[in-house]
Hints:
The protein is globular and about 50 Å long. 19% of the residues are buried. It is α+β, with helices and mostly antiparallel strands. The N and C termini lie far apart (44 Å). The chain has helices at 15-25, 65-70, 89-100; strands spanning 4-10, 28-30, 33-39, 44-50, 55-60, 74-77, 79-80, 83-84, 86-87, 117-120, 129-136, 140-147, 150-157, 161-164. Strand 3 and strand 4 (44-50) form a beta hairpin.
Amino acid sequence: MDTSWFAIYVKSRTEKKVSAELDKLGIDHYLPLIRVLKQWSDRKKWVTEPLFKSYIFVYINPAQYYDVLKAFNVVRYITFEGKAVVIPPQQIEAIKFFLEDAEPEEITDESWEKGQLVEVISGHMTGLTGELVEVKKKHKVRIKIEAINQIIFIQIPKNKLRIIH
């Protein structure tokens, strides 16, 4: 059968529980996680949290469609005009490579300004476009990329980007 990637919406803060349940059900899925330094009034701590709050990606065939919805805390599929939206495999791969990619490359000397449209030209996220929202340090920028109707902010070396004029 033909398998495709879909995004499911789950109840708030249940992403890891749903992931464990999908494992038990034998449903192939991907929950992108990032490490974030959280600060409380008395301490700081590194925690692992979902890159996209309340979303999990499932890789299923048509026969598994309703099995996913039966999993506890799954709310619905992300749909457009009443049909579950197929997520292109390249987008899933781009997310995976983004989370694994920590390799800085050579630096460019372009003029970087907030609000510019930029495109990733190097690395595993090649082809993705976003808006420059912040210039960090000397060699990195923060860009906004829209995915599944959510905005994610990524920090990326300047040399992996080009400004779209």
